[in-house]
Batch of 4 targets.
Target 1
Amino acid sequence: MKKNFLVSAALAVATTFGANAIAQDNETAVTFDQLLNDIRNNRYALTQEHQEREARFARERNNQQALLRQARAEETRQQQILTQLEAEYEENTQKIRDARSRLNEAKGDLGELFGHLQGFAGDSREIFKNSITSVQYGQREQAITDMIAKLDTTSDQLPTIAEIEALWFEVQREMVATGEVVSFNADVTNPNGESNNQTVTRVGVFNLVSEGKYLSFNPTTGIVSELPRQRDDALAGAENLATASAGLTAFKVDPTGPTGGTLLNALIDTPTIEERIAQGKEVGYIIISIGVIGVLIALLRMIVLVGMSAKVNAQAKSETIDTKNPLGRILQVAADNGSADLETLELKISEQILKERPAIEKGVNIIKIIGAVAPLLGLLGTVTGMIITFQAITIFGAGDPTAMAGGISAALMTTVLGLCVAIPMVLLHTIVAGRSKSVLAVLEEQATGIVATRSEAK
């Protein structure tokens, strides 16, 4: 019984402490003594491993303490360095204050002079930047910018005499350039985007021309480009100036220079008649079309009425009846009704005059209608254009008065076209109507004379 108990205990201990060792051992214990030895060896190995681990932890803890002491020592050393650098910084700052104070004392009254010189240099820099003389003399702004930086009150430097004299020289050269007409070579960009080196003529600080065409200068990019559109009335002077070598040459100068001339650009950008007409869009073309139709009708009727009036006047002076004109047909009616009573004759003649009236007054009412409708169509186009303009203002705002003015100008163009058609139409209607009335007056006069002659004969 006791022996069985010991076996059970030994198996439990073996299972608890030596499972790993037994599992790793390929040979199976055959006796209880061997099993106990295996368990004892296993416990010893585990104890030794724990001791080594504790020793390693102790060593690492000692190393950490050493590293901590080393870091604290380095911190103390850096604090000492920081204190030293702060002291040096304060000392250097005081030295700078003392040096700047001595510099200001050395400047004396020159401080105010340098202030004026700084302002003058800044103004000159802007003039040089926007001047067309930069195309010939190159960029001059950087040197002036460096000198302005030295003239600043916070600067510890002073401009040299050479730098001040260079500014004076550039100002004098710019003044002389205002009265010069000189030629030089420069890169010019044409409207196609191609750049060519060609001879450029500078007229003072106002205009640049090359090969008989005006040029523009962009101060931001420094690019000289040919104006995409040229004034025809100014090209002759530009060509003469480009080819002239001496003497006086007529040339149209834009006094608003110096970037090619704002006035010249404004005149060039002014829309042509074709562009103005195109601004009227569909309504404008309709107005022009009915205007052309009205003029053609008026001219045709004038030709017809002039010929008819000549034939009527010739018939009035002739004793022979010609039925190819209105008066001849009326005389033929009077001759055909020679035996009729006076009242019947008068009615027949009046009937014939009524038949002749539509042919004489043909087209007069059409001209009158065109003269009345044209301004109404112009008003329609204007109202439509204003609606579109206000819609654009609603979407994009009124921040650009130029764009808004352009839209209003385009909208009013239809009104101009309507008036341009209506005014001549009214005049043509007056002329044509007067000519037709004169022919009718002759017919009525002759008809009344026929009736009066027949009445006297009875």
Target 2
Amino acid sequence: MSDGGHALLVDFGSTYTKLRAVDLASGRIVGTGQGPSTVTTDVTVGMEQALADLARRLGGTLPVFRHRLASSSAAGGLRMVTVGLVKELTAEAARLAALGAGAKLVGTFAYSLTAEDVTTIEDLAPDILLLAGGTDGGNSAVILENAAALSVASIRCPVVVAGNRNAATEAKRRLEAGGKPVVVTRNVMPEFGKLDLEPARDAIRAIFIDRIVHAKGIDRAAGMLDAVLMPTPAAVLDGAQLIAEGIEGQGGLGPLVVVDIGGATTDVHSVCSGEPARSGVLVHGLPEPYLKRTVEGDLGMRHNAAAIVEAVGPARIAADAGLPAERVAALLALLADEVERVPQTPDEARFDRALARAAIGLAAARHAGTVETVYAVTGPVTVQRGKDLSAVTTLIGTGGALVHADDPADLLRPALADPSAPGSLRPERPRMLLDRHYLLYAVGLLRAVDPAAALALGLNHLDTLEEGCHARHRCVS
């Protein structure tokens, strides 16, 4: 543990600039502050307001901060496009690398890019493009064709080349001939069925710091900070990893899953191997990354409420909310007209609860793998696709819908294994915790400079949830 001092941990979000002041000796929050996100105008305005809010909550005086670190998901987050060779292989590996680096994936392309594909990429206006394709020593033609096609595109964003190493130098030359900034890193799939995602993730994060922070205007706050370290989703995943693994001399909580439900997306992070928990199971498809993040862009509580209802069916939402179908339709229309609306009546609260439960259940099921019995010439075989989360020991919930719920355990329960869906490999009997203070990003940031204080911060402020329990601040020991 640190010998003292304080840290200021900042998240430049799309709506708010959020501050957490942490005592490094105890690993506890001493104050919080919040201001509007003013990245599109002058980021320092919102930062100053958040600092003033923090000072007011601390009695008028800010402590001297030993560390002042920030993450950002502002101005739409880190917009990224990936291009690979085969959809199920190198394109999927590129997608996993992008999501793990904290990017907002706005487009995924496979095979040789067509003129229409290039036009679509130009319209998407990515901040970074990840170009993959071919195993090392394998297919070179497609990645080189795609490099040539992208070299004449109107995009000016950096390109990370993470494909066949035998073609990487030529791909870089073609892209640079078109005026594109290029970073070459190791292949995301150097051998068939083998992933190597971390070098690409590191390259994406480095570009975020070097270029995107400036492009988004966040570097205007440089005088108030030591560094903007990474995109906020990457900070959350780093925080989850630390809480799972612990540090030398102090263990963590073990394999875990984080469900983060928001107004526009529901994100799921997992820290575990994902290998079959049962013997005799054959794994099909690409190996799953130990650190995995999925983003469900159709499962936001406000911007995508209609998509949630459509995905599970109005009848299920009505039954879970205990409301007539016509009332559900009326409430859905109300949200369409007022996206930022918070529940103001008991009916709206019940509808919100049902929406959250549906979104969490769907997002967890999509993140988790599946298992099924197939029949081969030798007889029945149990086949797993994706990540087995059944033995995960901890499930952490965060996001406004959970934090403000009367019974967050009730909302989080659909992320668990369901007897009615025996093929879904969701967690079976985890301890359920709540990140009530929205601290996972702060844990991830602090980990970079003081892992012991960061671990204490996470463990001190995660609340234990019990079935039907409305109690607050039941902290992890």
Target 3
Amino acid sequence: MSATGTVASSTINLIKTIVGAGLLAIPYAFRCDGVFFAVSLILMAAFTSGYGLFILAKCSKTLLNPRHSSFFTLCSITYPNLSLLFDFAMFIQCFGVALSYLILIGDLFPALFGGTRTNWILLSAIIIVPLSLLRHFDSLKYTSVIGLLALGYIGLLIIGSYSFGNYPKPKVDWFSISDRSGVLTTFSIIVFAFTGSMNLFSIINELKENSMTNIKKIINNSIVVSSACFIILGLFGYLTFGKETLGNVILNYDADKLSVRFARFNLGLMVVLSFPLLFHPCRISANNMVHWLQLNYGTKSEIDETIGPITLEIEDDTDREYLEQELGSSHDTSFVHTYQSLPRATDDDNDDQVDERTEAVPFPDSRFLTVTFFLLAVLYVLALNVESFALVLALVGATGSTAISFTLPGLFGWKLIGTESLMNGERIGGWDKAHRYGSLALVWYGLIIMVSCVYITLFV
């Protein structure tokens, strides 16, 4: 397959992955937290999430072929016994959000055009199914552009209503917290607003000029643009309605106005076009779990067909002693090795062709179609029969989103960063040492966030 991704197209896809319907809850966070505290939380979430993306990207460069990057391949060489669990966390996170999008479609369109939620959910398949059949993530760049344009109109409505509308100017809390109990409920909204790690590896694998410089540009540009969207639209939404700001700011506007109806239509369109962005990593995780089960419980013929170049081990005891000395004796070094049959891909590797012979996790066409249609069928059946599962989705976000954004990147970084230098006979550089301990801090940060958000979800 061809690597067709560019910095621009990858940035668009990552921004669209991050900025979704959750943006409309940010003004409510400003209402509860006050402007200063809300902006501070957004900047903190932007930094920690961006750093998690950077650590994942840096870990991908420790692979002999960075185009084999995925949570599964990194798990397989660091925590092989937990690969299934880690992919299951990714699967549940993406599956839950994708399901919530289908349910939201059933809530939005009947209010705009009439009809039943069942009919509108089924009609969405006309757009969703073809987009879900696209195999490569970069193919979704055009729908991401449309989704961002739809979001842009909603943003213009929010800013224009404040600037030119006849709304009474409310009291605004610039530095004080107006709703201390609300701060807890909005904390998770902001922390999880920047979740985009589920699609980072697809971006890395499909990027034509697959260098760390380009990957950092994509991450930095996406985080900066997303942060600007959250801060600007959150601020103007709050400045317009003050303490009357609702959890979905669109509901504050007069639903009878044509401009507002069009904004709601754009919201629905954005949700429809966001679904494939979540379905793509969901399907990859499902295939990874099938692959893991075949490797561990399949017949010999199945194992021979599915095994990929992902198991790494040290051949030389001297190498092992050297690595243990540098990484710490308690550090498991069984994952470090060099492939004998494959050339190492360098940071300057601009090859736009991905060698399918060395595909780390095989995904044959027959299984691709089977997994795709099975997952779509399950999602649609659940969406037609479940009208709300807010508590489950909140718990999924608190655990799954935390795991893929903070905990897993930190665990990977702690084990992998610096190993490339050591295998080249060099000592770990100062920045790599800093990023290793930064990774460890990210693990603890993720665990604290997870416990806090689960507690908030269940008891606040």
Target 4
Amino acid sequence: MTTLGSLRALPHSLSMSGAVLLLGLSTSLAGPYIPLFGSELAHMSPLTLGIFMSLLAVSSIGVSLYMGRVSDRLASRKPVVLLAVVAAVLGYVLLTTTTNYLALCLICVLFLGTGAASFPQLFAFARSQLGGVAPKTAEHGLTTLRSVFSLAWVVGPGVGALVVSGLGFRGLFLVTALLYALAGVVVLSSGRGSSKRATAPVQAAVKVSGPPPPLALIVTSFVLYGASLSMGGIALPLYVTQVLHGSTGDVGLLIGLCALLEIPVMLSFVFLPRRFSNQTLIIFAFGLFVLYFALIWLAHGLPLLLLAQAIRAVVIGIAASLGMAYFHDLLPGRVGVATTLFVNTTSAGSMVAGLVSGAFAQAFGYRSVFLLCAALTVAAWALLLFVGRRQRRKVKAFAAEGRTD
């Protein structure tokens, strides 16, 4: 069977694609404009905005880890996904009721942080639907679903800019809440998603000889990458509108272009033969990310920013699609925890990013933030490169010992 035929044969693929698309639209509609909401409507300074974004990240990490552990013990992951979606709906509705800083922080911690768990849990739920298919086909299915999520980001930021200009931030948050609710309805009507069915194929897929990789170092590398990714994401809308004097439409164009270009990158891992390992490709992506930040720092107008977004698309296309599979290999048989851990590396990076980027921008300006992002990315690249080389040496030594037994 061809790869395309295998993907079409995946159980509940239509409902899962619909849920992922709606979730992607929900996050892409409001996500890029939360920093602008905080700055323009709630009158947050760069530092207080950074604290607000960090609180969101801290809450996301704690709730997501707890829900990941719980979902791995449940017969079905569906209730966990629905709980996260309902929290997101309530959170975005509540954002329309106040601009008080303390109230916004409370909404962020209690509702938006819980809602952020919908992304890893929806993908863990989707993976549990693939328990009866071949492991490679299951990986292709998740990669394709990730490209659907990116497809939503192609149109979401642009639509979000139109909604903000027409209905304001309150209208944007209400539309976002509606999209989350629709995603919940799709999940509610989908398959059961037993976590037990997904365990055996995953374990079978990752049985390899050799010493286990250093998980802590890998997680640290991804956290550094997540910090630079989040800092850049927070700073870019404000950099474009306040430093380069662009519009919210320019912000939507840049983010949408990146998401559009991510899709062929992700799908290439489904339909084309792969010559390099997940780890090797991720190392390449981290190195390429340094170039992206250098171009943003040098930019004084839209043309160079557009070129930089093409590079960013390659980086995210690799890291987002292969990173999840990479963590599934690191934690065999623990789909919920592995997916949550992968997503939470970005959340942990966001926790650091909010505070550091806010303080850095307030002290040195938004352009300087991208130099800091480049430095963090260099550290992430160097750390994962070190892990890869050390692991190869250990595997060779392990194989040599095996031959002498």
